[in-house]
Amino acid sequence: MAKSVPVHCPTCHREHSFTPPTFPCACGAPLTLPVLPDAAPELLGHRTWRDSWVSVRCTACDREGQWPRPEFGCSCGAVMRLPVPAGEAAAPDDPAHGQPGQRAAVRPAFRPVAIRTERDAIMAAERYLRWLGFTDVRRPGSCPAPAVAGVDLRATGLVARVDPTTLPTTLRDVECLWLHGLLDSAASVCFSLAGYAPDARCRADDLCVPLFVLDLAGTPQPLNDWADELVKRPGRG
Q1: To which H or E segment does residue 206 belong?
Q2: What's residue 221's pLDDT?
Q3: Cβ–Cβ < 8 Å for 181, 91
């Protein structure tokens, strides 16, 4: 569990205890933002999209990702942005995860399932995620995971969308999936049969969302660097 740090409100001068947020890296390791305990927080008067994110490197896979900059709301009404050193490595909380340079476990060959229906597409993505090591992958709607629009598969620390339509997956689809992952503190992965709109691909790169394209033989192909990294990472066991 992440250790709490003291936060001094510059408005009312009260001291609070803040626990830095932990997010799932695309490699599967939990990544805790390295909030500086001794630096003065910044009063947040105007929020912009660019300033709401910070780059932090994961020590488990050496990947640098964009993460929501931590904020704290004081009871006096002040909202503070907490300092995080950009680019600084954050150690995973789970010692069972691999360290930089660890070789990925050898996987058997993936066995695809031919896609003829929407159900086949979801089955192919589900089988692929199991092959990647997400052994508890399941379909929402089965207890305890409720059905949610835009989320077709879930696993521990992961939400996935499978788009079996004949139109490219849209920017809105990618952003909605990412928001579901953010709310669940889970990584987001997207599968599409018809590919992605150009703006959806760019946004997925910004949000660190792995994109895969499904062929009719049922074999997902990684489309961006985040997908490549997800395939290469050590198996979850």
Answers
A1: helix 198-207
A2: 92
A3: no
- CA torsion, points 186, 191, 195, 200, in degrees to nearest 10? -10
Q: Which residues, including other chains, have CB under 8 Å from residue 170's CB and lie 6 or more apart? A: 197, 200
pTM to 2 decimal places: 0.57
The C-alpha atoms of residue 59 and residue 11 are separated, in whole angstroms, by 36
Token reading at 77? 């009404």
Asked if the model's pLDDT at residue 93 lies above 60, the reply is: no
Angstrom distances, CA of residue 24 to CA of 32, 65, 111, 202, 227: 9, 11, 27, 21, 15
229 contacts: CB under 8 Å, gap ≥ 6: 26, 27, 61, 63, 210
- pLDDT tens per residue, range 24-64: 776 767 778 888 777 788 887 766 656 677 788 887 777 77
Q: Prior bond to 144 cis, omega within 30?
A: yes
Residues linked to residue 232 through DSSP beta bridges, in sequence order: none
3-class DSSP assignment, residue 111: coil
Amino acid letter at 196?
Answer: Y
Residue with tokens 């932090």: 56
Q: Look at residues 49, 37, 117 and name the one whose alpha carbon lies nearest to residue 83.
A: 37
Rounded CA-CA distance 192/180 in Å is: 17
Q: What is the tens place of the pLDDT at every residue in 141-157?
A: 654 555 567 889 998 88
Whether the pLDDT of residue 9 is over 50: the answer is yes
Secondary structure tally for the chain: helices H, strands E: 4, 15
